[in-house]
Specification:
Length: about 220
């Protein structure tokens, strides 16, 4: 009787085999597996541009997007296309400021190897635009900071009781803010974009009221 061998999950990941995800769902701890060199399923998926697998490993199985191999390199270091690098950085939380054991970022390592310079160019563009800091702030973290507000508007985000909200606050506007603040992606790029739109809408409403209301102070308050 032939003996059954355990499939090599790293080969399955490299091949984007349809057998991999059912295997991981039967034993979710395998999703964070690393071989003797620290090579992970995320490294394999990134290297071979398997985007759906990247999404599943990080969002379904909660694998750390910044998992490191024996050289201190995350999956971003093995990205070979701009599309994969963009997915890792902008959607899945991979930190492009992380340095390997040679004190090189993914951008520096990829540029030095000279094979996928367009990926290095993309990472440089992201670094320049988002301003990763030496303190370790990732581009993803930087994007979660609140965007600049319109002039003469102050925003305090916090827990506010109904008694603390002035009566003149537009109830529709207040409901929109409360609904947005309760969302899980409130600190993310989309949540902050919608917040800015709401604040801008409030400012325009204030300006309109001021123009037609004889100078009455009807500034709307956002948050507490």
């Amino acid at each position: 009787m032939p003996t059954m061998t355990t499939p090599n999950i790293f080969i399955l990941a490299s091949d984007n085999s349809p057998h991999l995800l059912p295997l991981l769902r039967s034993n979710p701890t395998l999703a964070s597996s690393q071989d003797s060199h620290g090579y992970s399923l995320l490294h394999a998926a990134a290297s071979y541009n398997h985007h759906d697998l990247l999404y599943s490993l990080i969002n379904e199985f909660h694998v750390n997007p910044n998992i490191k191999d024996e050289d201190g390199e995350t999956p971003l270091f093995v990205a070979e296309t701009v599309e994969t690098a963009r997915l890792l950085v902008e959607d899945l939380g991979c930190n492009p400021a992380i340095k390997n054991h040679e004190e090189l970022t993914a951008e520096e390592k990829i540029r030095g190897e000279g094979d996928f310079v367009v990926v290095a160019d993309y990472l440089k563009e992201q670094r320049t635009r988002s301003g990763s800091t030496e303190g370790g702030d990732s581009i993803g973290e930087a994007s979660q900071r609140p965007p600049p507000l319109p002039p003469n508007v102050t925003l305090n985000v916090g827990t506010t009781t109904e008694d603390e909200v002035p009566e003149e606050v537009d109830p529709v506007f207040r409901a929109k803010i409360e609904e947005l603040a309760a969302r899980e992606d409130f600190r993310g790029e989309e949540g902050q974009r919608q917040l800015r739109e709401l604040v801008t809408e409030a400012v325009r409403g204030v300006e309109k009221d001021a123009e037609g209301g004889g100078g009455r102070d009807v500034r709307r308050r956002v948050g507490g």
